[in-house]
Design goal:
The structure is a homodimer of 329-residue chains.
Chain A (H helix, E strand, L loop, with lengths): L2 E4 L8 H14 L3 E5 L1 H4 L11 E4 L10 H7 L4 H10 L5 E4 L3 H12 L9 E7 L4 E5 L9 H17 L7 E5 L10 H12 L3 E6 L11 E3 L2 H26 L3 H21 L7 E4 L4 E4 L6 H16 L2 H14 L1
Parallel strand pairs in A: 1-2, 1-4, 2-3, 4-11, 6-9, 7-8, 7-9
Antiparallel strand pairs in A: 5-6, 5-10, 10-11
Helix pairs in contact in A: 1-10, 3-5, 4-5, 6-7, 6-11, 8-9
């Protein structure tokens, strides 16, 4: 089935989204439905060998708009129309590179939550020394009850196993100590429940070990997750600035800097999570994958690839089954 | 007045602590009282030109002991004896490089809290692109009420102004968005109270801006602060590993790496917060400064210098006055 993409979302839309969709078709044969302003999209498809489906949406939601308000006022916004395509079964998943808040609001209001999930989470892939860990919640819910944390663990575990191909993903609670008595009451209680669950729960992880990649799924409240997500961005950029300054502080360093420049650029790309297709919204009846706002065509294509894998691996069906099984036991 | 130092605390104690005390005297004329096992300390002072005061303590608390339990069992532990010297007015402040938990427990039980402070905080200096920001709470209290957060703002502001010499320190709440309606109920309420306070409150700061150094005092719960503290350690180390790997991945990079090595070492030292003397415990009736467990003599000397400045600038008296003034208004 095709993947719906909000063609108007993102800093470089619609060029990046349209070219991303073309790239995903060329590389992996993945078909998309471009949702947005036809008059703007069509000229970008002139060189395409085969036709690509366009579904018209006359409005778009910008990064500066209040998500919920915008969703309610702009009934014909591309993100809303795209979510409806998924909800009605015309597309199997949604890729959105525009406002995260708008994508969340449109997805939540259009799809609804999965039975048994009180709060959906935004999960984000975090580069580590070993590859990638999935951190959730990344900011959908500032506060999280122990039930929410247990839900996040289950949702993240299924995503990492089915979509990212990690066998028995290692799940950990982000905490301020390794002992099970550490942390807030919610985290302490979640520890006990996770210990009894059939997830591959490895206990608490301290923030200094996140980068090690020893946990595949890292569970925390949206407040904490959002701090980790944004701090990673800020610190990586800041440290690169510092490294650059340190290199330029004398002649020897300058020459050395020129020689290592290319390698550092590769490293910087590795720290960019677009390679992992973006951040999935988990806990809803359908899948939305949020690609970074500054996504280029390659990042968009990757998001389409991951969304397609999720759909082929039947992640929604598997999640539903796991939740039903949990409700019975 | 002299500064008490737990001579037995830290990975390199008592050599690092004794040599640090000697260094602080040599460089700045700061006098210390070495607290610990006399038989071990004395031989280290053989070369010293002038005598240094030693106060005997027969026990020591290790990093692997349960802080509160150890404090209660080992009445003659060096950290406890040192805290008592401060409490009885024989020393003006305490420097501790041993177990943070033990230093906190000993300080809290020996000094007691300042009137008007419900929860003392551990404040830690975080290197930024502009210099250093003070983050509190760094983990003394996983949860923080809005009152606690407002207290942290006041305590941190006074410390940065009086001890670090920052004029009208800029205070910010660490939050998941800049708008005042963002975050947990506690953070939202603290925002309103801080807006009305006479602190130089700048609103919310997002985690991606921590590294910019735009805020001098960054206020958050102990859970969040501890995550930031440990994530900084982990991410800095991890990124250096990645930078190193990236450099060594080909010949050009290897040669460049050799040339920039020294500059990067300087940068790594800059990211080490020992230069700022360690993390003060704020909100107690006396000052304890926690130096990193791996402190060398220079780091210990810096901690003594900062503790001495805090004492000379009468930080305790000023904090008390500010709290009394607040209670009246």
């Amino acid at each position: 089935m095709k993947i719906a993409i909000d063609a108007m979302g993102g800093d470089y839309a619609p060029e990046a989204t349209v070219n991303g969709a073309l790239l995903a078709r060329k590389l992996w044969g993945i078909e998309s439905i471009l949702v947005g302003d036809e008059a703007t999209i069509k000229p970008l498809l002139l060189d395409a060998k085969e036709e690509m489906e366009i579904v018209s949406a006359r409005e778009a939601i910008g990064f500066d708009e209040h998500p919920l308000k915008a969703i309610r006022q702009k009934k014909d916004a591309s993100i809303v129309v795209a979510a409806k395509l998924v909800d009605s079964g015309k597309a199997s998943a949604l890729v959105a590179a525009g406002s995260t808040g708008a994508a969340m609001a449109a997805s939540l209001l259009t799809y609804g939550r999965l039975q048994g999930i009180d709060r959906p989470a935004i999960a984000f892939p975090l580069p580590t020394l070993k590859g990638m860990s999935l951190v959730l919640d990344g900011g959908a819910n500032p506060e999280a009850s122990w039930q929410n944390l247990v839900d996040f663990a289950l949702l993240g575990s299924i995503y990492m196993e089915k979509v990212m191909g990690i066998c028995k993903p290692k799940v950990a609670l982000l905490n301020i100590g390794e002992e099970e008595i550490k942390g807030t009451p919610e985290v302490i209680e979640a520890y006990q429940k996770l210990k009894q669950s059939d997830l591959n729960f490895k206990g608490n992880i301290e923030a200094r070990d996140i980068i090690s990649g020893n946990a595949d799924v890292i569970v925390c409240s949206g407040f904490v997750g959002n701090i980790v997500l944004k701090y990673t961005e800020g610190l990586a950029t800041g440290l690169f600035t510092m490294v650059k300054e340190a290199m330029l502080s004398n002649l020897k360093g300058k020459i050395g800097g020129l020689l290592v420049k290319d390698n550092l650029r590769v490293l910087k790309a590795r720290l960019d999570y677009s390679e992992y297709g973006g951040a999935p919204l988990l806990g809803l009846k359908n899948l939305t994958l949020i690609s970074h706002g500054s996504s280029d065509a390659k990042a968009v294509a990757n998001a389409l690839r991951v969304a397609n894998t999720a759909s082929e691996k039947k992640i929604m069906e598997i999640t539903k089954e796991a939740l039903e099984k949990r409700a019975i036991t």
